[in-house]
Amino acid sequence: MCVACVNDVTILIFYITLSGAGLITFGVNLKNKVMPLLTILIVLVVAGVLLWLVNSYIPMDSKIKTILNVVVVIIVIIWLLKAFGILGALGNINV
């Protein structure tokens, strides 16, 4: 058990009963389960800057730019839903 590790969460429960007191400890490894917030922010900033660069400096029809923007926004939204575990949970629903 690694109390000082960033990727681990150790939960301590202290209890008192009539027969005595005790301490329950259990750890949860969060590594590879939750994407760090910094990574999400970096990806959003990079995607936004790249989309801005394409919209600003590559000459193309406005309809194509609109389609490109919509596609990129949809991809980023799907990626965010997967990153926060919302989209993965929808796969467990049986209709």
Quick synopsis:
With 95 residues, the protein is an alpha+beta fold. The protein contains 3 helices and 2 strands, in the order E-E-H-H-H. It has helices spanning 37-57, 62-83, 86-90, and strands at residues 8-17, 20-29.
Give keywords.
alpha+beta; 3 helices; 21% strand; 95 residues
Description:
- This protein is of the alpha+beta class and about 100 residues long.
- It folds into 2 domains: about 1-30, no CATH class; about 35-90.
- Helices cover about 50% and strands about 20% of the residues.
- It has helices at about 35-55, 60-85, 85-90; strands spanning about 10-15, 20-30.
- The chain has a two-stranded antiparallel sheet.
- Mean pLDDT is about 75; it is low at about 1-10.
Shape type: elongated
Total strand segments: 2
Poorly predicted tracts of residues: 1-10
Strand content: 15-25%
Order of helices and strands: EEHHH
- Output the structural class: alpha+beta
Query: Total number of helical segments?
Result: 3
Number of domains: 2
Radius of gyration: 23 Å
* Average predicted confidence as pLDDT: 73
- Biggest sheet strand order reads 1-2
Biggest sheet statistics: 2 strands, antiparallel
Estimated helix fraction? 40-55%
**Separation, N- and C-terminal Cα atoms:** 41 Å
